[in-house]
Design brief:
This protein is of the alpha/beta class and 277 residues long. 31% of the residues lie in helices and 23% in strands. It is built from 8 helices and 9 strands. It has a 5-stranded mixed beta barrel, surrounded by 4 helices. A hairpin with a 5-residue loop joins strand 3 and strand 4. Helix 1 (16-31) packs across helix 4 (111-118) and helix 4 (111-118) runs parallel beside helix 7. The longest helix is centred in the C-terminal third of the chain and has 25 residues, at 252-276. The two termini are 32 Å apart. The mean pLDDT is 91.
Length: 277
């Protein structure tokens, strides 16, 4: 699937679930694995977890799969891989995330999640690098997502599709994660549209309405995962304090550097969590 050709999800008449099924068939052919059990989307700072989960049995550019695009962001690998855990479970590791701010539309943002569901995965683990509002969270702190506030003014649901999001981020999976690391804190994730970082006033607004983490991904993907019947675990790496909490200017370089420094610790944690799911 090349960006130079017409994208199948850009056709309004296309069925996004049929495109996801075609992508899942591509993954089965490329990996030799007919059924994946768990899917894991790797955000900024989480990349090394893929190497620690188990044995990589196949890895390939995401653009070889129907509907996937090359990531626009440094810090995202642009690859898909199939990993077999020591317990014999198959994990689809997604290192290619399409962000809403890229302007490709919500269908392309959530295509990886719908594809994961079509491969058979019933558990979706979504990770990201994000800004923290709580001053007790220093850069490099992993935080569980307990809920989200979708500030994108968009939804992956189309038409009269009503999905209950009461327990969107599974308490059962969060409890499993805390059994691995009891010190894990949790908070509410606010997805902004981006790509600009939030203003101090927007961060104050997010805090007033109940947010603790600010970022530009995850919420739309989580909604699509729930629609597909998946159980969801969300984890944020606090790469910086949000604007107005942090006194120095925000930069993408800072996010990448914080991710690099924290990567060995959080990747090991994530791999142990995946092993316990």
């Amino acid at each position: 699937m090349s960006d130079s050709t017409a994208h199948p999800l850009d056709d309004p008449s296309a069925d996004p679930f049929a495109v996801a099924a075609e992508a899942a068939a591509d993954i089965a052919r490329l990996t030799g694995v007919e059924h994946h059990d768990i899917a894991l989307t790797l955000g900024s700072g989480w990349g090394k977890a893929a190497e620690l989960i188990g044995e990589t049995t196949a890895a390939f550019p995401a653009t070889e799969v129907t509907g996937f695009s090359k990531p626009a962001l440094e810090g995202h690998a642009g690859t898909l891989r199939s990993v077999r855990t020591p317990a014999g479970r198959h994990v689809l590791v997604i290192g290619a995330r399409t962000h809403f701010y890229e302007g490709h539309g919500v269908r392309r943002v959530v295509h990886s999640v719908r594809t994961a569901a079509a491969t058979g995965a019933r558990t979706m683990v979504l990770t990201n690098g994000a800004g923290g509002i709580r001053s007790s969270w220093k850069p490099g702190t992993p935080v569980l997502i307990s809920d989200h506030i979708n500030l994108t003014s968009a939804s992956p649901l189309e038409g009269a599709t009503f999905i209950d999001l009461t327990d969107l981020y599974s308490r059962r999976l969060r409890d499993i994660a805390r059994s691995i690391d009891p010190s894990l804190d949790e908070g509410v994730y606010c997805q902004f549209r981006g790509p600009q970082y939030e203003t101090p006033a927007e961060v104050r607004m997010a805090e007033i309405i109940g947010g603790h983490i600010v970022g530009m991904s995850t919420a739309l993907e989580a909604i699509a995962a729930r629609q597909a019947g998946m159980e969801i675990l969300g984890m944020s790496l606090i790469t910086n304090m949000a604007a107005g909490i942090q006194t120095t200017p925000l930069s993408h370089e800072e996010v990448i550097e914080a991710g690099r420094e924290a990567e060995p610790v959080i990747s090991s944690l994530l791999a142990r969590v995946i092993g316990a799911l």
